[in-house]
């Protein structure tokens, strides 16, 4: 572990040819509006020129890891879902800083979230961000103090009209939204990889199943006594953690601890219905078209990029609560509806409203939503802040795919 750095406010970052150097520069002038980062912000870990504004460029922790647990004994969280471990900034080379600002190592995460009206985030955390010993609040405090305080774009100086502790809300909201867009259990199940007391899998099978939903990028797999218990999803970020675009990438170091073969994926003890397989290995396959798993019942439609989800009108949003959609079998596919009404492609745009008289029949491919067989949708830009983006089927500046998370 790398020792904590001096206060990030006094540092700029220079990287060239993969080598990264931190240079003392005195106080940075943020201008009080750094959360409104320019659209052409440099992608973290990829700059070749000096980046002076660390409110729009994550440094030195330029690679962000959304990490997940699979606890089986004792079991934590639902039996058909992984749980949140955290959101960690890495230095683009596999090393990291920790506990960077003791003055902001807050010990009242629940009260902070409630004070800012983030009750939906807190409720979600109480189900999906669990400590195996039952000390959820202490766990959250640890994750914020150790990792959240090391995210440069979450510095108080990066906010306009800063309200003390508001960066805490952004940290937990972003972590939750990323997790919602990474339904590990469903992605593995779609490839025939399910919890079992007898079956084993290869690391390559697990990587293929998860990579199929992330443009082939690998993850870090963690095993304990040969049993899969952690997944780390790696991202670089264009802009700030709060409002920027998370771009999937490969791990920034060799960290996986699972064996090449014989990987166990155990059911959660007492956690409900884990499926027991009778074969020793499973062959990975893509999710079938039509309804299939997982597009049935109720669920969220999360952006595969990790930035936001669809809300009830069918627009793409990054700062609000994901809408609950209902998927119902229809012919060779399924229809969708939200609290606003039926969902359909209206004048080329994904729309959910009472005015939609006939719901569009969608299909799925590779675990992602498909319209007329195509899983790629489009928007004018990645949503940021309070801006919603209309989702189109025809080409626009930004492409996006949406995966299903059952609830």
TrEMBL record:
<dbReference type="GO" id="GO:0003723">
    <property type="term" value="F:RNA binding"/>
</dbReference>
<keyword id="KW-1015">Disulfide bond</keyword>
<dbReference type="InterPro" id="IPR033130">
    <property type="entry name" value="RNase_T2_His_AS_2"/>
</dbReference>
<dbReference type="GO" id="GO:0016787">
    <property type="term" value="F:hydrolase activity"/>
</dbReference>
<dbReference type="GO" id="GO:0005775">
    <property type="term" value="C:vacuolar lumen"/>
</dbReference>
<dbReference type="GO" id="GO:0006401">
    <property type="term" value="P:RNA catabolic process"/>
</dbReference>
<dbReference type="InterPro" id="IPR057328">
    <property type="entry name" value="RNaseT2L_C"/>
</dbReference>
<feature type="active site">
    <location>
        <position position="147"/>
    </location>
</feature>
<keyword id="KW-0325">Glycoprotein</keyword>
<dbReference type="InterPro" id="IPR033697">
    <property type="entry name" value="Ribonuclease_T2_eukaryotic"/>
</dbReference>
<feature type="compositionally biased region" description="Low complexity">
    <location>
        <begin position="275"/>
        <end position="288"/>
    </location>
</feature>
<keyword id="KW-0540">Nuclease</keyword>
<dbReference type="InterPro" id="IPR018188">
    <property type="entry name" value="RNase_T2_His_AS_1"/>
</dbReference>
<feature type="region of interest" description="Disordered">
    <location>
        <begin position="270"/>
        <end position="289"/>
    </location>
</feature>
<feature type="active site">
    <location>
        <position position="85"/>
    </location>
</feature>
<keyword id="KW-0255">Endonuclease</keyword>
<comment type="function">
    <text>Rnase which modulates cell survival under stress conditions. Released from the vacuole to the cytoplasm during stress to promote tRNA and rRNA cleavage and to activate separately a downstream pathway that promotes cell death. Involved in cell size, vacuolar morphology and growth at high temperatures and high salt concentration.</text>
</comment>
<keyword id="KW-0926">Vacuole</keyword>
<keyword id="KW-0378">Hydrolase</keyword>
<keyword id="KW-0963">Cytoplasm</keyword>
<dbReference type="Pfam" id="PF25488">
    <property type="entry name" value="RNaseT2L_C"/>
</dbReference>
<comment type="similarity">
    <text>Belongs to the RNase T2 family.</text>
</comment>
<dbReference type="InterPro" id="IPR036430">
    <property type="entry name" value="RNase_T2-like_sf"/>
</dbReference>
<protein>
    <recommendedName>
        <fullName>Ribonuclease T2-like</fullName>
        <ecNumber>4.6.1.19</ecNumber>
    </recommendedName>
</protein>
<dbReference type="GO" id="GO:0033897">
    <property type="term" value="F:ribonuclease T2 activity"/>
</dbReference>
<dbReference type="Pfam" id="PF00445">
    <property type="entry name" value="Ribonuclease_T2"/>
</dbReference>
<dbReference type="InterPro" id="IPR001568">
    <property type="entry name" value="RNase_T2-like"/>
</dbReference>
<keyword id="KW-0732">Signal</keyword>
<dbReference type="GO" id="GO:0005576">
    <property type="term" value="C:extracellular region"/>
</dbReference>
<keyword id="KW-0456">Lyase</keyword>
<feature type="active site">
    <location>
        <position position="143"/>
    </location>
</feature>
<feature type="domain" description="RNase T2-like C-terminal">
    <location>
        <begin position="294"/>
        <end position="405"/>
    </location>
</feature>
